[in-house]
TrEMBL record:
<keyword id="KW-0472">Membrane</keyword>
<feature type="binding site">
    <location>
        <begin position="123"/>
        <end position="127"/>
    </location>
    <ligand>
        <name>3'-phosphoadenylyl sulfate</name>
    </ligand>
</feature>
<keyword id="KW-0325">Glycoprotein</keyword>
<keyword id="KW-1133">Transmembrane helix</keyword>
<dbReference type="Pfam" id="PF00685">
    <property type="entry name" value="Sulfotransfer_1"/>
</dbReference>
<comment type="similarity">
    <text>Belongs to the sulfotransferase 1 family.</text>
</comment>
<keyword id="KW-0812">Transmembrane</keyword>
<feature type="binding site">
    <location>
        <begin position="329"/>
        <end position="333"/>
    </location>
    <ligand>
        <name>3'-phosphoadenylyl sulfate</name>
    </ligand>
</feature>
<feature type="disulfide bond">
    <location>
        <begin position="312"/>
        <end position="324"/>
    </location>
</feature>
<keyword id="KW-1015">Disulfide bond</keyword>
<keyword id="KW-0808">Transferase</keyword>
<dbReference type="InterPro" id="IPR037359">
    <property type="entry name" value="NST/OST"/>
</dbReference>
<dbReference type="GO" id="GO:0008467">
    <property type="term" value="F:[heparan sulfate]-glucosamine 3-sulfotransferase activity"/>
</dbReference>
<feature type="transmembrane region" description="Helical">
    <location>
        <begin position="17"/>
        <end position="39"/>
    </location>
</feature>
<feature type="domain" description="Sulfotransferase">
    <location>
        <begin position="114"/>
        <end position="353"/>
    </location>
</feature>
<dbReference type="InterPro" id="IPR000863">
    <property type="entry name" value="Sulfotransferase_dom"/>
</dbReference>
<keyword id="KW-0333">Golgi apparatus</keyword>
Length: 366
């Protein structure tokens, strides 16, 4: 048999080619696995995101243009933690105290426009009231402030409805936006949505409220002018600057007149911000009665926090840590010139007297 050197030399080449094919196959397989994994990961994230925030249908633009407030406002609500629902420690969710929600109940849940709204006032205690109300099993309330009727009205009612939490039959949908009370377009807009809407206003000594308002602003803008210089147009002439929103908001009687053009007094409840601190269960009894709800939130749900000076929330049947106001609440007020405080009290006195007469309740601020 004749020896062939050509055939012998091709054997190593075949071996190398075989090894190369195996390595190429392994590399292609690994690449396929990687591509397959990467392609599934974004899909999962998108599906999860879309389930949390379903797409909203486009709304027709409201022909009525949003009218900006003419007040001189140094208070930027957009960056206020309270407007985003972050005013309470350990209480970020909409159903923190909800023990009735479950798979069976979720099948019958729908989103509804609010039947009751906390319309004001800023720095009066609206966040505290909202969190107290969310203890009630028959109330579902959105945590963040929607600002629909004053800033987002052109987006339409369906956009507004999508912001609301899901409710079961018999449950009440609520929201709170304190700037509603002082925005003149809002009463007519809420009336157009539902003329039977129940309205809650948390009011507080207007002088204390103004100082609290200023304190909040200064915490974000330390270089703003002093409270005293902002309060007066001309301090020697004792001329109060009513264009400054911190002063303007406390003129409650003037704002209430706008609401009474659209709603009867029977549809408005005025909650004392002072009593909401000193007697939260008592004020909550009034609120629950006004809303036509059984009295579920009682003194068993409150625990006073001496460090904060505010009541904290607790489960009556549990020994868990109470839910208290967060760091954005209960700020220490600056020292204000007593003469300026007295001038402000004199300024508000006729407004307070008229407000007492209109509401039939003396809040004792004078």
């Amino acid at each position: 048999m004749e020896y062939s050197p050509h055939c012998h030399s091709t054997q190593p080449v075949k071996n190398k080619l075989f090894v190369f094919c195996i390595m190429l196959s392994l590399w292609v397989y690994m690449l396929y696995c990687c591509v397959g994994y990467c392609s599934t990961t974004p899909t999962f994230m998108m599906e999860e995101r879309s389930s949390r925030n379903p797409p909203r249908p486009l709304q027709k633009q409201d022909p009525e243009m949003f009218l900006k407030s003419q007040s001189r406002d140094l208070l930027n609500n957009e960056s206020d933690a309270d407007s985003k629902g972050d005013g309470w420690e350990e209480n970020k969710g909409d159903v923190v105290y909800d023990e009735d929600s479950g798979v069976a109940g979720a099948l019958n849940e729908t989103k509804k426009l609010p039947q009751a709204i906390i319309i004001g006032v800023k720095k009066g205690g609206t966040r505290a009231l909202l969190e107290f109300l969310r203890l009630h099993p028959d109330i579902r309330a959105v945590g963040a402030e929607p600002h629909f009727f004053d800033r987002n009205y052109e987006k339409g009612l369906e956009w507004y409805r999508e912001l609301m939490p899901k409710t079961q039959e018999g449950q009440l949908t609520m929201e709170k936006t304190p700037s509603y009370f002082v925005t003149k377009e809002v009463p007519g807009r809420i009336h157009a949505m539902f003329k039977g809407t129940k309205l809650i206003v948390v009011v507080r000594d207007p002088v204390t409220r103004a100082i609290s308002d200023y304190t909040q602003t200064r915490s974000k803008k330390p270089d703003i002018p002093s409270f005293e210089s902002l309060t007066f147009k001309n301090i020697t002439a004792n001329l109060i600057d009513t264009s400054w929103s911190a002063v303007q908001i406390g003129m409650y009687a003037r704002h209430l007149e706008q609401w009474l053009q659209f709603f009867p007094m029977s549809q408005l409840l005025f909650v004392s911000g002072e009593r909401l601190i000193s007697d939260p269960a008592g004020e909550m009894a009034r609120v629950q009665q006004f809303l036509g709800l059984r009295r579920e939130v009682t003194d068993k749900h409150f625990h006073f926090n001496p460090a904060k000076g505010f009541p904290c929330l607790k489960r009556p049947e549990s020994n868990s840590k109470p839910h208290c106001l967060g760091k954005t609440k209960g700020r220490t007020h600056p020292n204000i010139n007593p003469d300026v405080i007295q001038r402000l009290r004199d300024f508000y006195k006729p407004f307070n007297k008229k407000f007492y007469h209109m509401t039939g309740h003396d809040f004792g601020w004078d």
